[in-house]
## 1
Amino acid sequence: MRLMIRVAAIMGCVALIGGCNNDNPKTNEHMDHSIMKEDTNAADHSAMDADMMGGHMNHDDVLRLHDSTGENELKIPPMLKNEHKEDVVYTVRAQKGITEIFDGTKTKTYGYNGSFLGPMIPLKKGDRVKIRMINELDEETTFHWHGLEVAGDIDGGPHDPIKPGEEKEIEFTVKQDAATLWFHPHPTGKTASQVYQGLAGLLYIEDEQSQSLGLPNDYGKNDIPLIFQDRIFDDKKQLNYSSSMNSDGTIGDTLLINGTVNPKLTVNKEKVRLRLVNGSNARNYTFKLNTGDSFIQIATDGGFLNNPIYMKEITLTPSERAEIIIDFTKLNRANDIALINEDGSILLPFNISGQNGSISKIPARINDFLVTDEEKNLPVTKTIELFGMMEHVTINGKKFDPKRIDLTQKQGVTEIWEIHNKPDMMGGMIHPFHIHGTQFKIISRDGKEPTESEQGWKDSISIKPDERVKIAIQFKEKGVFMFHCHILEHEDNGMMGQVKVE
Ligand code: C2O
Ligand code: CU
Ligand code: CU
């Protein structure tokens, strides 16, 4: 019964017990269908389990997000200022705060250098960077730099907790190319709850190439981050993690983009670059334009694609990023343009001002990413098996144990990992798989070359039930690094392992 109520919670209403007030036709259809199967024997779990798994396999059936009314202009995370003249020095404080997400209502939140979410920290390839991390929360936290190629002791995984009131400093050199990375906490068993309450920020890396290409790069004007996070607000408009929590991934009905509820984005008539970040605990998004227009993808998690590609839609699972450009001078319609989700829900309406914007370019060639023949022909040396749901999630049959090293790899040596999402009797679900401290290349998905959209540096990949993905991976730095499912509740439930690089 407990499971069934959870299922109902996933669907966003308690249809099984009556009183469903969700007006999403698709969700209702799905629920009706499950009621039909269930009504004679509501205590029988098995069919319901299957239905639930189906719900995960088919993301059309996941609780639909409320359409954005567009009443609030999108907030842009502040760009953090370097505190030094010669060196690059930043201070990041994890704090508690109160945020007016809804007009006139105070919501208790967490944030970095502010009450909710965090700043954008700009870094440049070659920079020597110092970051002072201060924990002003009442609980332990860590500062994890997702996608950053740094040594294990800089990475901020569960091994590096900072106690309440304490601080720590890290120092590293930025060695990787331009990319949109992010940072968030990673304390054992509490990652999901801390991210949910608002701990997430952006880390941009620029390099000479990225600044000379002529791409839109006026931060907040035509180069806009979009951090997508779905949440459930209780009747007092609070983020009550423990009551909203679902051990299979907390899904909300209310979308926040950069912490803004019901956002709209005002743009000039120009090419606008959107840096899409799936910062949700568990929700997958398939982004498209309501007009059916194409947009141009220019980057994956860890850097530029070789060639910009036209896309009608792009799917991002938790922690994946992509950069896209929408050319607002060339759309089918002059207004009523919005970014929508696969199910048609309106995520971000655009308000196109009459003004012409700046002229930016999208060069035909923007990177030299290459999967070599040698890499394609290397044998598989590590296999990873993702399995399970809810509390019963494992990697290679085991749950995370901080004292156990699961894999070892030599610094600077490329290996091929094969990751398999082992289905269960009911099918299984997508697991977004992430590895710390490195950017890797996808060699194949079920033996086939990945689509162009994934031919670039990645640190997180979506793996479908029974899919086998081969990646070529090298660690530039030493240390112990996590690999895990980025459904944050799965991670907290132990769907995580450690690779020691020496
Ligand atoms: Cu986004 Cu273990 O990380
Ligand atoms: Cu990470
Ligand atoms: Cu998972």
## 2
Amino acid sequence: MSGLVELLEWKMRGDARGWLMPVEGDRDVPFEIRRVYLIGGTNRGIVRGAHAHRVTSQVAACINGSCTMILEDEHRRESVRLDAQNKALVIPPMVWHEMRDFSPECLLLVLADTLYDESDYIRDYGLFRQLAEHDRDTR
Ligand code: T46
């Protein structure tokens, strides 16, 4: 069984003037991008996320500072430190995710393949486990 953490390494193009990092839908992320959001101003002790999405796929990278992302599916719970602008994490649908240990000035960029829809969220952990285990049993 492969791991839950799938990282993408975005290419940074640099010259004497500094760097530029392009991110293109269907090329640098595994979907067409329909939504972009940024998360900032979060203190170290705060936990964000703590939900899964029914259908949305996302990719997240800390474009400043760092944070830890915890991922969980029906089989396993894994964590990864997002600590470089070009280190992007794939967050598939039906994966519980939490963000913790935000560094000062952390800026988390998230790209999604859907528009915002609250009904896509599973925010109840018990319900998430039930649905994930049901999916596994019917596969
Ligand atoms: C996720 C993790 C990584 C909107 O109005 N539009 C949006 O596109 C989003 C993402 C959120 N919102 C509103 C909904 C809430 O009133 O922004 C508020 C904060 O959202 P939430 O509490 O869900 O934020 P996080 O940091 O817990 O989770 C976010 C995303 O919502 C979520 O999809 O995967 O970051």
## 3
Amino acid sequence: MKKIIAGNWKMFTTLADATVLTESIINGINDIDSEVIIFPPFVWLVPISDIIKKHPTRLKLGAQNMFSKESGAFTGEISPKMLKGLCNYVIIGHSERRYNFHETDTLVNDKLKNALAFGLTPILCIGEQKKTTNNESVTEREVISHLTKSLEGISAENITKIIIAYEPVWAISKPVGPIGVGDAATGEYVEIVINDLRKHLGKLYSEETAKNIRIIYGGSVKAANVKEYITRKGIDGVLVGTASLKPEEFIKICKS
Ligand code: PGA
């Protein structure tokens, strides 16, 4: 399975920044075989999609969020129908949406189902808020509950179309300051939690299905620590925030 390297640009970049960043990434990843996806702000999806179309590149495009309805009187929202054809991936339930915009597991579940209905590949984010020294309690509480509730009613056929991003909230970098202010989780910690998530998915679906579900890690990933995650069994890639805004840094991550 190809490793996934996803770059979430959050609410950063001007159109000029976004253009330079995209072109640099396209040029920098020519010879690599990973699944590289960028998630620019909504307003840059059209111009970035045009840039990608002009190049023979493996670079893929995704949206940072979407609403669950197809259309309607929902001022300010973007529907899966609008994203279809423009990009292939969509981040659903990022912790910044859950905690700043009060998105619930029920809404996340609805968004997931609608993203799938429109043929988009969702990246479902789950993760506990507080760091704990006891790995077992991580999987017993919040993160398992997010997983179970977010996936309610999702069929075994559809679950393998979803990428799960385990992002402990405490490990995500602060949006200001230099790379590395976040408290990245250790590879060992991530491996244990992802292993437990896969076991839980095995109970919800089947062990065979669970083996085929792609689970990635996010939280202060940078060129200096990416190998710590991608070399471990069961970790299928990384979701990168801050470090995805610096072309050389992001390309180094892709090349790792
Ligand atoms: P970070 O963000 O890499 O800046 O910690 C990751 C994320 O929020 O997806």
## 4
Amino acid sequence: MFDVVAGARPNFMKVAPILGEMDRRRLDCQFIHTGQHYDDAMSDAFLRELRIRAPDVHLGVGSGTHGVQTARVLVAFEEHLLRARCACVVVVGDVNSTMACTLAASKLGIPVAHVEAGLRSFDRCMPEEINRVVTDAVADLLLVSEPAGLENLAREGIPPEKVAYVGNVMIDTLVAELPAARSATILSELGLCEHSYAYVTLHRPATVDSADRLAAAVQLLERISRLLPVAFAIHPRTRSRLVAGPLYERLSGNGRICLLGPQPYRAGLRLMASARLVLTDSGGIQEETSYLGVPCITLRSSTERPVTTTAGTNVVVGEDVANAWAAVGSVLAGQHPTGRPIPGWDGHAAGRIVDELVRRFGRQSGQALGSAAASTISAERPGPGAPPTHATGVTTAGG
Ligand code: UD1
């Protein structure tokens, strides 16, 4: 049995194609929802739209400090694993649920596969960076989505036989949903025209938890709104910081700034795909805009997804809003990078992920790890588009 874990909004678009591929191959798998995100807008709306089955197990952990949230997932997932007959846990991304489930499983001797392994911002102030480093240090199979991930894992001394380049599974969801997203009615509902507005998402603690930085970001949106209408999809964390002071009221009084809640998948994709530019501090949006060829300005001092800046459409401007304002000028002057295709971001990553899982852990439900480990699997090239690397295949633990 494969346990496929998701907890927070950015996980759902990553597990959807993996669960779909496992179902197509009739593999024995369960969908475990930790409940880190629990609002309809942050969770269930994505399950419905992406046709993800109802969770087989819901841990219901909810919000809390990092310690509390991580501990609740750890306790609840361990209890689940002690009851279940799980042969492999599949975790995705870098949220607290990813790290907590990895720790619970590995302490019980259950192998863990990490999808989106090897990403590093080299900024330990980001909670996600701690989650990435811990998860990759402990996981048994590291499934990498971007070329820098291979270098990072090699530098950290991870044996190459534990690593495979599979490409970007979130792009599978984007490719599958783009036609439906193109017919979403959100632009006309908001009175926005194709390629003539800015789409904004900001939610990271580093951007929104400091009153000064949040005020500077709001001022930036006001400046942009003099050039282009702004659609601002507001995360619950950001909303709570804005309403704590005068900023929310100031924004809502601006007729050129549309204040939106967290967007469902297709509406968000439509808003992104049709924007003149995107301003964000999200990780996934840097990747999605690169695939779509939409200019992205990232209001952060680092990115764990550097291929989006070398081959994509992303410019990381740092935390100073003056740089972001200059980047807006570059976009409008037609001087922003246009990007080119990125290896393995092709809509077929889930197939390569499930190939690796089956090769490594076997396809039979509840197959004992020992029997999977008995055969050594030769290294093979990954699916089409993946870059050549020494780390393109996996061997079993005993191999
Ligand atoms: C989490 C992830 C982050 C990801 C983001 C996407 C970690 C460390 N961070 O950050 O990597 O980019 O999700 O959204 O795992 N809240 C709600 N409803 C919900 C969930 C949260 O209102 O369904 C509110 C709560 O007040 C909570 C706050 O949002 O305190 C923050 O949520 P939390 O899950 O702690 O972290 P995110 O900022 O969402």
